Backbone:
């Protein structure tokens, strides 16, 4: 459920009960559109997340931790200067809009008490976090908006804060709401602060109980501020939505209760936010790899065309020999000659000649062309081998990029590409990159390790795994090395390991994928082989169909 007006009202109620009067200890900005305010209240530590990302804008208490940039932004430094050590004095929602106002009691440079405000607007692509004084004068915002970006409202330092334009909808907390049809779209267009999901729930209640009873049942917990947060799960137990109240239109077994609405919000957004931000960070590298791959594929096609031209080289050698054997028939100035081809049952053949040179020079010209094509064919075979290796390697790295979960994973792939000469190293010195394989527990409690790139695959197989551990890899396809920390795992663990190997490979979208497995001691790295390249023997093969729902059921332990 998006953070609509009703959900924000529930969040405000929750935050007021926990954070009112909290002391601000630390402010961080782990992302360009995200703030984390660490505070303490009644002996408890809390982390307040304010996010203005267009796709995942939200406000909630969070349990998650993110690495912070080495150099904080100017906006973060400004907030630290003004708010650190202050007290959170007020948290309120503007009407039933998606706007929250946080007021802080602080001291100015003269040690006098002043009020500062953070205004969080959760409005899709227009989401923003704005810092003002008590009179609404803007100090700065996490996203500045000039007149070229918006004709309706400018957000710049020094200007006065103005509320976004009104939506001209009815406030659902009003006592004079006219009867509405049980049509979600019309309800959403009429009432302020209802997302499509909330409108669907209200439409369901109206259709089941009539307007008066249905509307009353829907608004009761919001008016009474009596919430029962739930996380909506799909058949595999994956969170697909969250709500401030239990939903009548879904079965209870798919609604997992949470003590705090913030916990439900955190659980819902955690994977989606991480996946989206990882994809954003890897975008430049993905474009670079795609361009390199397309260039290698074009080069490979051109080399194949040239090799086809070389397939006719024997013809030119024969022409040279036939001209040499029949010099007595040819006069200088002839443009062609017809002779018997003793390479083809003495059938007659006509050979074109250059009438500006001698007959012998024509023969030497054909021999020279033959030798040129012969040399080219040898070079092309060698070049085509290297081009195919480039194609395989770049395809493998694109697959590895899909397995990245954080910035460290991406930078490890970049470091390998720099080492291999595909990407230019940056001028500034890079810090050492630490990135670890994924860790899972099988249904029977056996640890399964999965590499996310070639460097990890090498380390996992050659350094981390014991000789009696089970090693797995998709047959003849780029993908992760998988280690099961057991020499004789049960069938269910083997199947889960095979599912992980297939899912984290280029065969992710395929069915009935062949996965080889053998003991680690039968896996060797050939001399001079690239990162992640191994050979193995004594393998067995199983077949699985990768399924994201099945992967989510395997317990992740990192």
Residues:
């Amino acid at each position: 459920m998006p953070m609509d007006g009703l959900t924000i009202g529930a969040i405000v109620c929750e935050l007021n009960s926990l954070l009112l009067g909290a002391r601000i200890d630390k402010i961080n900005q782990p992302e360009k559109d995200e703030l984390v305010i660490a505070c303490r209240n009644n002996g408890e530590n809390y982390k307040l997340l304010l996010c203005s990302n267009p796709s995942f804008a939200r406000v909630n208490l969070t349990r998650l931790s993110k690495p912070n940039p080495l150099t904080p932004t100017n906006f973060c430094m400004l907030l630290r200067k003004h708010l650190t050590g202050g007290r959170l004095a007020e948290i309120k929602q503007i009407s039933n809009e998606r706007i929250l106002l946080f007021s802080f009691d602080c001291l100015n440079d003269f040690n006098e008490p002043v009020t500062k405000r953070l205004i969080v607007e959760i409005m899709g692509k227009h989401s923003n976090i704005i810092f003002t004084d008590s009179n609404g004068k803007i100090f700065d915002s996490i996203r500045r908006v000039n007149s070229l970006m918006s004709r309706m409202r400018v957000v710049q330092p020094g200007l006065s804060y103005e509320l976004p334009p009104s939506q001209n909808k009815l406030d659902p907390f009003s006592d004079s709401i006219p009867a509405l049809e049980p049509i979600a779209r019309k309800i959403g267009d009429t009432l302020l602060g209802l997302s499509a999901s909330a409108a669907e729930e209200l439409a369901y209640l109206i259709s089941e109980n009539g307007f008066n009873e249905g509307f009353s049942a829907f608004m009761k917990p919001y008016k009474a501020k009596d919430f029962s947060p739930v996380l909506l799960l799909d058949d595999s137990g994956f969170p697909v939505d969250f709500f401030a109240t239990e939903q009548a239109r879904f079965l209870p077994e798919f609604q997992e209760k949470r003590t705090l609405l913030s916990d439900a919000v955190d659980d819902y957004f955690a994977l989606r936010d991480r996946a989206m931000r990882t994809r954003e960070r890897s975008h430049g590298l993905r474009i670079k790899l795609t361009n390199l791959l397309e260039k290698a594929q074009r080069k490979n096609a051109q080399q194949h065309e040239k090799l086809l031209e070389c397939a006719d080289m024997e013809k030119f050698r024969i022409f040279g020999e036939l001209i040499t054997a029949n010099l007595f028939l040819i006069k200088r100035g002839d443009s062609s000659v017809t002779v018997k081809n003793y390479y083809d049952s003495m059938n007659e053949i006509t050979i074109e000649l250059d009438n500006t040179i001698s007959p012998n020079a024509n023969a030497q010209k054909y021999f020279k062309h033959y030798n040129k094509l012969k040399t080219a064919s040898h070079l092309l075979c060698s070049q085509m081998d290297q081009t195919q290796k480039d194609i395989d390697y770049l395809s493998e790295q694109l697959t590895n990029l899909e397995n990245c979960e954080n910035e460290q994973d991406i930078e490890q792939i970049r470091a390998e590409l720099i080492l291999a000469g595909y990407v230019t190293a940056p001028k500034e010195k890079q810090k050492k990159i630490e990135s670890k394989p994924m860790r899972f527990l099988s249904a029977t409690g056996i640890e399964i390790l999965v590499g996310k790139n070639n460097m990890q695959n090498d380390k996992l197989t050659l350094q981390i795994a014991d000789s009696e551990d089970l090693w797995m890899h998709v047959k003849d396809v780029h993908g992760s090395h998988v280690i099961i920390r057991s020499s004789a795992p049960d069938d269910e663990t083997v199947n889960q390991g095979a599912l992980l190997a297939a899912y984290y490979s280029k065969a992710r979208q395929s069915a009935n994928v062949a996965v080889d497995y053998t003991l680690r001691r039968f896996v060797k790295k050939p001399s001079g082989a690239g990162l992640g390249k191994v050979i193995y023997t004594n393998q067995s093969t199983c077949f699985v169909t990768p399924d994201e729902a099945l992967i989510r059921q395997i317990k992740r332990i990192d």
Notes: The domain at 5-141 is CATH 2.30.310.10 (ibrinogen binding protein from staphylococcus aureus fold). The first helix runs from residue 5 to 19. The mean pLDDT is 90. The longest strand covers residues 23-31.
